[in-house]
Amino acid sequence: MKKSVRVGSITVGGVGSVSVQSMLNCPSSDFEACAAQIKKLKSAGCDIIRLAVSGENDIKCSAMLLKEFPEIPLVADIQFDYRLAVKCAEIGFSKVRINPGNIGGTDKVRMVADACKAHGVAIRVGVNGGSVEKEFEQKYGVGAKALSESALKGVSLLESFGFYDIIVSAKSSSVKTMIETYRLIDKVCDYPLHIGVTESGGEGMGNIKSAIGIGTLLADGIGDTVRVSLTGDPVREVYAAVDILKALNLRDYCEVVSCPTCSRCRYDMDKLVKEINGLVKGVNKRMKIAVMGCVVNGPGEAKDADIGIAGGGDKAVIFEKGEVTATLPFASAVEEFKQKVERLIANVY
After folding, report:
1. Cα–Cα dist 322/91, whole Å
2. Is the pTM of this model over 0.90?
């Protein structure tokens, strides 16, 4: 079990659930734009929100945001300037993200660590494929070994200052390198891991790369907080991350399963699947609903479903936990099925 680290109201690591993160992409000095984006991310299911802090105007805006949103942990992303990290700790950020290798030297890292310790602020040691320290690139070449060693050096430096509220990330745009890197770190590191594929691209391939990388690690029990990195609206990152957690049963939801169909399917199953997905949208309880193309496989393959429907010519069957409970003309079967789904949701809540 990983050490637990508090990030505002969220526990990362330990027995805490896997949390979802995203990052604002509007100007960090624009209060109205930042506030609007924070509200959208929160509504989408984001647990922790990060923003880049690059100067005094960003600090002033951040202080206002921290007062406006005390209920959600905000993280300051700092590049190069240790003084900004110190100020972010002082004004109440829940965590600061730094790369100890580019923050300005050992003494500067110590000042950041001291400020964070004094104010109860966690530090994420954040390294990625583009910021590996030269000594490790020269020793190992470009790859997982250099990336993992670079991150672990930052961890050791903070520990030397008596700072232990640490979260570690070591991301790569290569899915295979990212997976290998986190596996190496996980073997020797008890700190919580922030996992993700950096620079994964836009939706489509970006979602696929993130699902493979994050999903593989989570399936192995590696990873305590996740960020899907996509170009564009960060709300889409949250939706993708939550879906990854749902697919691994790390978030409660109502699962709708459906078969890919073949010539035995004699009805517009795609339409019905969309309707059922609309009915269960937002349901965060563990349930399983099946929409199957025919009775040949339907009740058997989906016998663990709370309720399901399967077509068969001009008729359809409704089944619950693998047992057929009704055989009806198709049109009336669909309406009966939808009503049963609605009643099931009502009973669960």
Report:
1. 57
2. yes
